[in-house]
Amino acid sequence: MKRYMNKWVLLGLKVIIALVWLACLWTFAAPILSEAMAGLYSSQAAMRWPYLIIMGILFLVCVEIAFAAVWRLLSLSGSGTVFTAKAMPCVNWVLGCAAIATALTVLVSLCFLISGWHDATMPAMDYYTIALVLGVAVLAEIGFMLLMVVMKGLLRAATDQSSELEQVI
Questions:
Q1: Residue 163: helix, strand or coil by DSSP?
Q2: Residue 121 carries which DSSP code?
Q3: Which of 86, 46, 89 is nearest to 66 (CA)?
Q4: Distances 87 to 99, 112, 138 between C-alpha atoms, Å
Q5: Global pTM value
Q6: Which residues have a Cβ under 8 Å from the Cβ of 81 and sit 6 or more positions away?
Q7: Alpha carbon 48 to chain centroid, angstroms
Q8: pLDDT tens across the length of the chain (169 residues)
C-alpha cells in the first residue's frame, strides 16, 4: 500500500490530539464554572446541574469519542489504508459525535435563553453576550458537520476510485 501522508505530519497531529485530549479532561472545572454561573445570576441557579451534566460531561464524552475516531483515521492514513471501507465508520463516528454535541449546545442555548430572559440580576449585556457566544458555537458546530459531510463524500469517492484502480491493476 502506498503511504499518503508524511510520518512526521502524522506524528505531529497525534501529539496535538493527545495534548487536546488531555486539555479536555478539565471536567473537574465544570462544577466550578456551573457554580459560578449559578452564584452570579439567580435565574441560573436551578440550571446549575443541567449545565454541568449536559456541557460538562455529555459534550466532553462526544469530543473524546470523536478524538478516538480521528486517531484511528490517522493510523489508517499512516498505514496507507485510509482509502478503504475501514475509514468510513470512523468518519461516521466523528459526524455522529458532532451532531450530538450540536444538539447538546442547542439544548443549553435554549435553556439559557429561556431561564435568563427575565432575570433582573443579569445585565442585558451579559445575557446577550452569552447568547451570542452560544449562537456562534452552534453555527461553528453546524459548519463542522457540513464540512464532515463533504469530507465523507470525498472519502467515499476516493475509496471507490481506489478499489476500481486496484481491480484494474
A1: helix
A2: T
A3: 89
A4: 19, 38, 27
A5: 0.76
A6: 1, 87
A7: 22
A8: 456 667 888 888 888 888 877 777 666 666 776 777 667 777 677 777 777 777 777 888 888 889 889 888 888 887 777 788 888 999 999 999 999 999 998 998 898 888 877 777 777 788 888 889 889 999 999 999 999 999 899 888 888 887 676 676 6
